[in-house]
Amino acid sequence: MVKSSIELDSIDRPVTALDDEYPSGFVDDWHDHKRGQLIYAAKGVITIFVRKGSYVLPPQRALWIPGGVEHMAKCRSDVSLRTLYIEADSMTKLPEKCRVIEVSELLRALILQAMKISAKYEYNSREDRIMRLIVDEIEVMPIEPLLIPMPSDKRLAAICQSFLDDPTQGEDLTYWAEAACMSRRTFTRLFRQETDMSFSEWRQHARLLEALSRLSVGDPITTVAFDVGYNSSSAFTSMFRRTFGVPPSKYFR
Questions:
Q1: Long-range contacts made by residues 229-233, C-beta under 8 angstroms, separation at least 24?
Q2: What's the N-to-C CA distance of the chain in angstroms?
Q3: Among 244, 179, 208, which residue's Cα sits nearest to residue 200?
Q4: For residue 209, which of 190, 220, 222, 224 has the smallest C-alpha distance?
Q5: pLDDT per residue over 166-187, tens digit each?
Q6: What value, to the nearest 5°, has the Cα angle with vertex 170 and ends 166 and 174?
Q7: Inter-residue long-range contacts of 182-189, CB under 8 Å, 24+ positions, other chains counted
Q8: Which of 77, 82, 80 has the alpha carbon at shortest distance from 5?
Q9: The pTM is what?
Q10: What is the mean pLDDT of residues 141-151?
Q11: Would you place residue 1 in the very low, low, confident or very high pLDDT band (cuts 50, 70, 90)?
């Protein structure tokens, strides 16, 4: 019986599936796969790191990772993981870069059904059609802004990691520029060049994604708002709605 991702990477089928359970704090070190990979947490919260940043993956969202892209995973809680491995020839319209996508009720049902299908299913069978329909659905799902880009410059990366470790830090741009041993102008220019964001935008986005992780495991909105550096829950809710289109109380419904 095929069980490992290494075996599934080489099975002669367009799509194969693997389900697994991981405890809170589990880390899957840096690795890659020959095939494209769709990672879906049916339960729990997982953060996926790539060389250029990290993705927060709460329930009802999935991450598409093209074949050959190195990544690492860390479980923020107990996680029920459902993973699909998709042959490159099947990826005619799938993204060439990592993307977090929304998981519709149909796609979720298809993913869960795929977990019951043998890795060596018959071509042109019901099982084959289910797997190919999954690919069609991945292609049309809305993309979610759940990437925290990380600069490659070591000085800027250290500043970003410091902020991720404690998102309540409210020091101004001059403080962070001095901490990176740069002028304010150089810091601003280089940060945008490496992340496509201003430092203020990046910090706001990092706070929201940290909040998203905490909300998804049931932490109260008011507690989360203060824990990630907001002065009030109303300010947090306003920024959350502006970014994700709905207030935090409705995001996971």
A1: 229/167, 229/168, 229/169, 229/170
A2: 37
A3: 208
A4: 224
A5: 998 989 999 999 999 999 999 9
A6: 115
A7: 182/155, 187/156
A8: 82
A9: 0.84
A10: 90
A11: very low
CATH number of 150-251: 1.10.10.60
SS3 content of the chain, % helix, strand, coil (to 5): 40, 25, 35
Average pLDDT of span 102-121: 93
Cα–Cα nearest to 86, from 189, 191, 177, 11:
11
In the chain, what are the domain boundaries?
5-144, 150-251
Contacts of 198 (CB under 8 A, 6+ apart): 188, 191, 192
* Cα distance between residue 202 and residue 188, in whole Å: 12
Rg, C-alpha atoms of the chain: 20
Neighbours of 95 (CB within 10 A): 15
Buried/exposed code over 211-248 (b: 16+ C-beta within 10 A; e: otherwise): bbbbbbeeeebeebbebbbbeebeebbebbeeebeeeb
Rounded CA separation 37/57 (Å): 14
3-state secondary structure of 193: helix
Residue 4, classified by CB atoms within 10 Å of its CB into exposed (0-12), middle (13-18) or buried (19+), is: exposed
Q: Report the distance separating Cα 87 and Cα 11, nearest Å.
A: 9
CATH number listed for the domain at residues 5-144 = 2.60.120.810
